[in-house]
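Researcher: We're teaching a course module on how sequence relates to structure. For the next exercise, students receive a sequence and then see the predicted structure as tokens, so they can try to spot secondary structure elements on their own. Here is the exercise chain.
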Amino acid sequence: MKILNLYAGIGGNRKLWGNEHEITAVENNQEIANIYKDYFPDDIVIITDAHQYLLDHYNEYDFIWSSPPCPTHSRFNLPIKKKRYPDMSLYQQIILLKWFFNGKWCIENVISYYEPLIIPTIRDGHYFWTNFIIKSNKVQRLINNMNNKDIANERGYNLDELNDILKDNDKVELALRNCVLPETGLHILNRALEIKSQEDIKQTKLF
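Model: And here is the predicted structure for the students to work with:
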């Protein structure tokens, strides 16, 4: 498949996807994109705004994964010290893909402090919106009480390498904690691969 991996970060969700697919990763942070490229040299890495790239190129791919910015939605932001609008690019992308994209897609985000406007599936401590059913893979995300080294080891990254590149402990922690568990990313991709036709997609839509 031709796969689009938006807001790619350091590639937690992509970690176990292998190299049999043509994968394009979009990330707007040069430092983070460099880390991704080191781990996945066969992928096409584009440094640009993922939200606009999706709008311009969504019909070029078979499967799209997107993890839009999550801080303005996170329940860990409460109590909110500085009032700000939630970033609605999350819901814009869900609506775009639902109504205009003919392939398979998955949008991931954090569990929000408010009732989600479109009902997601909850897996591994994340919200997932898809146009196919995600069955449970019985994997749990246990990072709330883990240090950076443990999280890096769990996700298959070298903490010393991340520290050398980013040189900022807060950046390293954010990059690691934003990662979807690789096992969950592979589980969702495999489920997408099981969907053989557009008729199958129509029969398994969640909303």
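Model: If you want an answer key for the exercise: The helical segments are 30-39, 50-57, 89-100, 148-155, 159-166, 169-177, 182-194, 198-203. Residues 2-137+182-203 form a domain with the Rossmann fold fold (CATH 3.40.50.150).
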